[in-house]
Amino acid sequence: MTRRATGRRRQKICTVSDRKTSPEKPKDRDKDRNLTTEEISRQLQAYYDSIVDEGIPDGFLDLLDRLDKADKAQSGGSKD
Length: 80
What we know:
Structural class: alpha+beta
Helix content: 55-70%
Number of helices: 3
Oligomer: single chain
Low-confidence stretches: none
Largest sheet: 2 strands, antiparallel
Radius of gyration: 33 Å
């Protein structure tokens, strides 16, 4: 690295060897960023499946049961 004095401040002189070169080509980076439709579809399906596998929380099932009972009581009978 070569430096040159200019008054009180020093300024770096850039040389060709000082420049950083990217190890990967821009096309490679763009390819990595762009997911294909199939990849997106697989990821969404896996996410959906994980949510389905979680099941319904007990509190939510209790709420649905109370709503069904209230609906039956309001209509005056069973709807089975």
